[in-house]
Amino acid sequence: MLLDILTNPNPILRKKSHHVNRILDPEIQKFIEDLKETMLQKDGVGLAARQVGRDEHIFVINVDSKIQTLINAKFLLKSFKQTEFEEGCLSVPEIYGMVKRPQSVIIKYYTEQGQLKIRKINGLEARVIQHEYDHNRGILFIDKVYQYTTGEELVNAK
């Protein structure tokens, strides 16, 4: 089932998500499948529960055609080295901006099967995870942009 994606300035996007205690619950499993389907249908590389009005700390990503679910994610370490890259967001349509983020992260999370994972992640995958993680904290990429574009116009944000 396709879910409705909330767009800025909807105040629900600014709320923090809650820890998921019942990962294997059939309702949560169905929601995860709907979240993946919505992300793929909308051509996203990630989608957080917060973006569809849910308060569970869940997000899905699709990097290099590998779909992953991260539940109750927590960063254990972020690299000092940062990279700049243009980001966009399904919840902030038609706005793109340059954002600096740590190049690599070590993250702890649960899979949709309830397995605990601790991984070091680099590059685009690390960026997408940080972007989606921010959604679950009520933070949008536009909060971190130092330069953005709207269509053809380039604007300095700060």
UniProtKB/TrEMBL annotation:
GO terms for molecular function: metal ion binding; peptide deformylase activity. Fe cation binds at C89, H131, H135. Its cofactor is Fe(2+). The active site is at E132. Keywords: Hydrolase, Iron, Metal-binding, Protein biosynthesis. Its EC number is 3.5.1.88. It catalyses: N-terminal N-formyl-L-methionyl-[peptide] + H2O = N-terminal L-methionyl-[peptide] + formate. One of its GO terms (biological process) is translation. SUPFAM superfamilies: Peptide deformylase (SSF56420). PANTHER family: PEPTIDE DEFORMYLASE. NCBIfam families: pept_deformyl (TIGR00079), PRK00150.1-3 (NF001159). Removes the formyl group from the N-terminal Met of newly synthesized proteins. Requires at least a dipeptide for an efficient rate of reaction. N-terminal L-methionine is a prerequisite for activity but the enzyme has broad specificity at other positions. This is Peptide deformylase. It comes from Candidatus Komeilibacteria bacterium CG_4_10_14_0_8_um_filter_37_78.
